[in-house]
Design brief:
single chain, 307 residues, alpha/beta, TIM Barrel, 8-stranded parallel barrel, 13 helices
Length: 307
């Protein structure tokens, strides 16, 4: 039985700027080795303590991933590398990656996910198998995040349904009760607040107590967002971009996530137990564009101190 449902939610008045600022505080951001290399100093653009995820795309050597983690950690930021199950050939490789991240970058947290490739290259096909390996617990990882899909995921449910993603989150909730690591759900980016709010409320109704870090697309050209949204399987909320594309006056204006974030902030103000606790920025239009947006909405950077 699925707990994911899509229905319209009642309109909520726009929140005051300080409410949005409180919601933006504590955001995280995602980078790749090649995009991180373009940033001269993360300490100059990120608030102290900002968690930096490092996406591991198929074909990226582990050496580049670890070097990027070490560089960002060296600037004083907690780093959370991706561990995509389907590109990890075997248990020995997983153990080696964990040891490298710990030994060279002091990493003690990870985003554990299946990975969006066609099929597994080795013995792992999903994030549950990685978690069940016991290697993260053995290594003493303090924080483990797992992927969430507010609009479903056809890699997990090829029929377009929602059964498998729902059952996977139930398993991960159970795992969170068996591990000492702190856990949270980090989601794909979305654009339509109504379905996201309904999904998050459905989690609590289904007994999923993990906090949610909602994926937010940073400022970018509309054409760029539509391309990424289609490639990443963003579903119902894609209509927001399509409506914007139909408005000639907005076609050349960069998208900003302000309205989306404000709607979530307003809901959280009205419902303090809201499952969504943090924002996770996908800098599809560039890292600096996303950090500038966050700073303009209450998360101003302060120079981080080196460890």
């Amino acid at each position: 039985m699925s707990f994911l449902k899509f229905r319209k939610t009642a309109a909520v008045p726009a929140p005051a700027p300080d409410v949005v600022a409180a919601f933006v505080q504590g955001y995280s951001i995602e980078v790749m080795p090649r995009t991180a290399a373009k940033v001269e100093s993360f300490a100059e653009i990120l608030p102290v303590g900002t968690r930096v995820y490092i996406a591991h795309l198929e074909g990226t050597p582990i050496e580049e991933m670890v070097a990027t983690a070490a560089r960002i950690a060296g600037e004083g930021f907690p780093v959370m590398p991706h561990f995509p199950a389907r590109i990890i050939p075997d248990r020995a490789t997983l153990a080696d990656w964990i040891a490298r991240y710990q030994g060279e970058a002091g990493v003690d947290q990870a985003l554990v996910l299946a990975g969006g490739i066609g099929g597994a290259i080795g013995e792992f096909d999903n994030s549950m198998q990685l978690l069940d390996s016991g290697l993260f617990d053995k290594a003493g990882f303090k924080r483990l995040h797992v992927a969430g899909h507010p609009e479903g995921n056809k890699d997990i449910d090829p029929d377009g349904g929602l059964h498998n993603v729902s059952e996977a989150l139930r398993w991960k909730q159970g795992f969170s009760e068996r591990t000492d690591a702190e856990m949270a759900i980090t989601t794909q980016f979305c654009f339509e607040p109504g379905p996201v709010i309904q999904w998050a409320e459905g989690l609590r109704e289904a007994g999923i107590a993990l906090p949610v870090h909602i994926g937010v697309a940073g400022p970018a050209k509309l054409q760029t967002l539509i391309k990424f949204a289609i490639a990443c399987g963003v579903g119902p909320s894609l209509s927001v971009l399509q409506r914007r594309a139909a408005d000639v006056t907005k076609l050349l204006t960069p998208y900003e996530p302000t309205d989306f974030v404000a709607a979530l902030a307003a809901h959280r103000q009205a419902h303090p137990d809201f499952a969504i606790t943090n924002l996770h920025l996908f800098p599809l239009g560039g890292i600096r564009a996303s950090t500038d947006w966050a700073a303009a909405h209450g998360a101003a950077p302060q120079k981080a101190s080196s460890p």
